[in-house]
Amino acid sequence: MTKKLIILLLFLCIPPFIHAQSTSTITGTVRDKKETLPGAAVYVSGYKIATLTNNDGKFSLPKLSPGNYDILIQMIGYLPYSKNVIISDKPVTLNITLQENVNLLKEVVIKPDPNRAYYIALFKDFFIGKTPNAADCKILNTDALIIDDDKTQSLLTVKASDFLIIENKALGYKLRYLLEYFEYDYNIKMVFYAGHPHFEEMKGSGAKQKKWLKNRAIAYNGSSEHFFKSLYDNTITQEGFVINKISKIPNKNRPADSLINAKIKQLTTGKNGLTNVLTFNGSDSLSYWLKQRKEPKEFSVVSRKDVLVDTLVSKFNDDLKTIKYNNELYVIYKNEKETSVFNSSGLKQNRPMDLNDFQISVLKLLNPSVNFYGNGAVADPRALLYKGFWAYEKVADMVPMDYLKNNNNKE
Description:
Blueprint (H helix, E strand, L loop, with lengths): L6 E6 L11 E8 L9 E4 L5 E3 L5 E7 L2 E8 L6 E7 L4 E6 L4 H4 L10 H12 L9 E3 L5 E6 L4 E6 L3 E5 L4 E13 L4 E12 L4 H15 L3 H10 L7 E10 L6 H12 L16 H10 L3 E6 L5 H4 E3 L5 E3 L4 E10 L2 H4 L14 E8 L4 E3 L11 E5 H4 L19
Parallel strand pairs: 1-14, 2-8
Antiparallel strand pairs: 2-5, 3-4, 3-6, 6-7, 9-12, 10-11, 11-13, 12-13, 13-14, 15-16, 15-19, 17-18, 18-21, 19-20, 20-22
């Protein structure tokens, strides 16, 4: 591809929901250094589950299946709080102490940044996305964003002083997103971000509700969440997915680096080690070897033989399954087509002619293996690198982990 590729390492810290018969409860007390705090909001990251602390600062989150959850606490005047909790068949009790937000207790003078609007727009493109849904997705409190553009490192980092409040009018969700970090590397065109989203249903007319249900189904279908759920249930074919593998083969026409570098050094160094003053027209020896250095060392080749789930997935325990493979997976979703907007995003993957405009994503393991759950949640999102369509869909196309799909597209 001639277009620049922007690769997204999706670090959404979304806790898994386990398919199990037994449930348990997380209870706790929220306080500061002096007293308990009534009215604190308690959320379960990745879900629509939420509650408030009572007059004694206590809360309860019942009927949670065994698994790994991130509990989020929000209270005006205090810093956002998150805690990872693993529950099995026994209840868990938490004692949480919030820290005062000192920036709210004193006057803060912020030096105006003439480039802030540009940085916020860049952050939105990489965080919210550029899909059609992103046009109806808005961050309501951009003043909470703390931006640092490090020119020496060619790195843009964004943090947040509070939960980001995101209104998604395309899907009918209001999100509270606890941003842990966001980084964009200008040199390698790569985005890293991590955070904890909580979903709340928006209110709307019957026509809006119907539209939102339709848009949510489209957002879910073909997504990485949909893929891993289908992988867990061994329903890949029925759900419209095809899995191929990408192999790397060496470029036999490219000389070894040692030879290329030796030739370039020979042609650019004169007597006594002095550098020659050179002019070249693109057809001389130096131009040839410089072109050879730019040639790829290897090529990616897609094997059109379908990968069987049984050869790719193994059972880790009663709740987890493991995926392990070499090179990269080439995942084709045949029930939806890529759009013209996506085609101009720079993320479109090369493909055989017969695949037309089917949605194609590439999945690369950064760890030897990855565990995942029955609802499509990955135990360690940092272990995966997404390219193609899954790198295109970001926060504007997220649905909760307790999103349920049936034939009527109802939740």
